Amino acid sequence: MIGDVLTALVNIFNPDALVIGGGLSGAEPLVATIRGVIYERCLPLATRNLEIATSRAGRDAGILGAGHLLLGVSDEWIGRVLER
């Protein structure tokens, strides 16, 4: 199912890279299956330059991404709070 969804996304958006993160990045048999499904079912043009990799952040990818987003908006948010 994950491979089917990612196949559709790769065919539509034609990305240069697909990074699998979170808990999935540590499950190498699952990552290998996803990789195989994508290369089997995607259009050849969509996978010609596609790199499929796992996140170096591993299981912490989600919390690191949330922290990054928070830091990106925190200055604006703090400024609005102080203006009140």
Task: Summarize the structure in words.
This protein is mainly alpha-helical. The chain has helices at 2-13, 28-41, 44-47, 61-83; strands at residues 17-20, 51-54. It has a two-stranded parallel sheet. The longest helix has 23 residues, at 61-83. It is elongated and about 55 Å long.
Task: Give a short synopsis of this structure.
The chain has 84 residues and is mainly alpha-helical. It has helices spanning 2-13, 28-41, 44-47, 61-83, and strands spanning 17-20, 51-54. The longest helix is centred in the C-terminal third of the chain and has 23 residues, at 61-83.
Contiguous runs where pLDDT drops below 50 for at least 5 residues = none
The overall pLDDT, averaged over residues, is: 88
Series of H and E elements: HEHHEH
Give the number of DSSP strands: 2
Oligomer: single chain
**What structural category arises from helix and sheet content?**
mainly alpha
The percentage of residues in β strands lies in 5-15%
- Give the distance, in angstroms, between the N- and C-terminal Cα atoms: 48 Å
